[in-house]
Fold these 3 entries.
Entry 1:
Amino acid sequence: MADEPPPVIWARLSSQGRGPVRTLDHVAITTAAIALADEDGIGAVSMRKIAGRMDHSPMALYRHVGSKDDLTELMYDAVLGELELTGIPSGSWRADVTRLAREIRRLHHAHPWIARFGHRPTLGPNARRFLEAGLACVDGLGLDIDAMMDLLATALQFTRGFVEQELGEAEAQRRTGLDFAGYQRQTGPFISQLLQEGELPYLRRLIIEADDLPDPEALFERRLAMVLDGLTARIGCPS
C-alpha cells in the first residue's frame, strides 16, 4: 500500500497558529524567492540561493518551507494576490470576465515564470479568492456549476495561451538578439523563394495583406472579444 501523501502546505500553515513575528518565516522566504525568479527565472530559484540572499543557512529555510514544491506553491499563490479584483462581480459577466482576462495577462507579464504553474488547482488563500470571484462573475446566468466553469475557463485559457505566445516571442528575442522585425528580415529571402514556387496561397496572402506588426493590445482585445462573442452565443445569455 502506497504511503499517504503529506498534507498540503496550506493545511500545515493553517495549523501553525499565528505566534510572534519572526525575521525568517514562509512569507519572507516566498518574497525572496519571487524576487529571484523575477530577476533570473524560475530555474534560478533554489534554497541555497534564497538562503544566501537572506543571510541564513538552507537548513533554516527548510524548517519553514518543507520542499521546493511547497515553495513554488507559495510563490504562485503570493503573486495571485496582486490581481486587482475590487468591484468584481459588477453585474456584467462579460465586462467582469474581460477584466479578469486582462488582469491575468498583466500578471504573466509582471512575473513571466508563472506560466509554468496554475495547471493543477491550488488551494492557497489568493487562489481561493480568485476562484470565488471568477465564478461569482458568471453566476445568475441560469448555468450549472460545470457550465459556469466552462465559460470562465474558456476565456482564461485563451488568455494564458495568448500570453504564453507573447512570452515565447520575448524569450526568442532575448535568445537570438533579433526583434520580430529583425526576424522578418532574416527569413525574408527564404519566404520570397517559397512564394515564387506558387504553392502556398495563404502564406502569400499573409505576407501581402496581413498587418506585419500588429499592436499586441489591440490583437488581444480583438481575439478575446471573439471568444466572448462565441461564449455568448453558445450559452444564449445576455452580454
Entry 2:
Amino acid sequence: MDCRVGCGACCIALSISSPIPGMPGGKPAGVRCVQLDDDNRCRLFGRPERPEVCIRLRPTPAMCGGSRDQALAILHRLEIATQP
C-alpha cells in the first residue's frame, strides 16, 4: 500500500521518541510534526535526517483505514494501546 496523498496521519497521531529536525526531543502523540508541509507531506522524505522510525513505518490497510479520518482514529487507538 502507498501512503494516501495529503494524509499525514502518522505524522500527527503517533509519538516519535527520536530527534526530528526542529523537534530535538521528538514529538508527542497528537502533535503535528514540524516537518509536515501545508499539503501534509514530509519535508524530510528521502533525506538522511529523516528519523529511522519514520523510514521503517509502512502503511497498511489495517493502520490507515479507508480515509485520513479513519487513519487518525486507528493510529490514536494504537498509540494508547502501546503506551507503557
Entry 3:
Amino acid sequence: MKLLHTSDWHIGRALYGRKRYEEFEAFLDWLAALIESANIDVLLVAGDVFDNSTPSNRAQELYYRFLCRVAAAPHRHVVITAGNHDSPSFLNAPRELLKFLNISVVGYASDRPAEEVIVIAGADHEARLIVCAIPYLRDRDIRTAEAGESVEDKERKIIEGIRAHYRRVYEAAEAKRATLNKSVPIVAMGHLFTAGGQTVDGDGVRELYIGSLAQVGRDVFPAGIDYLALGHLHIPQRVGGSDSIRYSGAPVPIGFGESGQEKSVVLVKFSGDAPRVANISVPRFQEMKTLQGDWQTIARGIDELKSTGNRAWLEIIYEGDEIAGDLRGRLDEAVAGTGLEILRVRNSRVLERAMSGMTTDETLDDLDVTGVFNRCLEAHNIPEDQRPALLIAYQEIVAALNEEDHMAE
C-alpha cells in the first residue's frame, strides 16, 4: 500500500492580518492532484487541520471540498486526527457521515483503545493496514491532578500517560491483527513534541503541557510500530535518526521564519518487511521574503524584486543608524504600483521607543505568551525566587485555556 503522511495544515491562519485562503486552496488542489496521480491508497493527516477551534465558513468549505475530491476514488482511505489547535468535537461532528466516504476521523482520545484502531482494506476487501489513529492527548486524557504535586511529578505523569495510551492502542491493534491471521503493517499517528525536535522562531508551535513542554523520547512508542506519522512540529524531520518515525512538517509556511524551508509531505510504501519512505517537496504557493538592514540595503532589495515582477509578501526589519521615523511611508512609496505587499515592519530605531526610555526593541509581535508574562514579572519587580512557581501556574492556566473545546456545546 502507498500512504501519504501530512499534518499541520492550519487552514484559516492569517499572517499579520493578511488572509491566506488562496494559498491554502492552492495547496489542497496540489495535494489532491498528487494523491490521484501517485495513486495513493491512504492519506494520513496528523492533526492541526485548522488553525483554531472555530474555523470560518470559508476554511470549512476548503476542507470539505478537498475531502469530497479525494474520496472520489472508491478504495481510497483518509484518516484524520485532531491536533492541539483543532476542536475535537468539531472534527468529530460529521464522522458518521464521512465513514461512507472511507474517511475516518478521531478527535478525542478514547477510554476504549479499540476505538482508535482502524483497519484499512484494499480493493479486494482484504485487510492491508492497521492504523493507530491517536489524536493530540490533552492533559486531562493522560493525567490525574493531585494536590501538592511538584512540577517533576506532573511531567513524569504526563510522559507515563502518553506511554500508557500508545501501549494500550498498540495492543488493541495487535489483537485485531491476530484475528486476521495475516501479517499486516501497523502504522501509528500522533500529535506531540518529541525530544530534540527542531523548531524556528515565530512558527506558532504552542507549548502543549506545563513545565518542560513534556518532550517525549522514542522509548514511549511501542517498538513494533512499522511507521509513526507525527504532527505538531513544522519542520520536516526524522525522530532520533529513524526513517520510520517522522514529522511531515507544515506544508505551508506558517510565518516568515519558515519562508526559507523546503516544505514536504511524506510518501510511505509498504511492499516488503520495511516501509520505503521518501519526502515529496511541496511547491511554494506564495513567496515570502524578509529584507533586513539599513535603508539602502532594504531599498536595493525592493528594487531587485520589482525588476523581476515579484509579488512576494515582505517582512521589513530596519536596522539602520538613522531614526527613520517616516519608514512606513517610504516603504509604501517604494512598493506602490507593484505586486509586492508589506505585511510587517519592525523598526528597531523608532523614535517613540527611544523617547520612552525603553532599552529593548521588542514588540508584542516578537513575544509569545510566556515571553509577555516574563516581561510582566520584570516590570513588577517580582523576586527571582518567586518567578518559577508563578510561571508554572501561568503555563498551567494557558494550557487549560488552549485545550478548551469551544465548539463542544
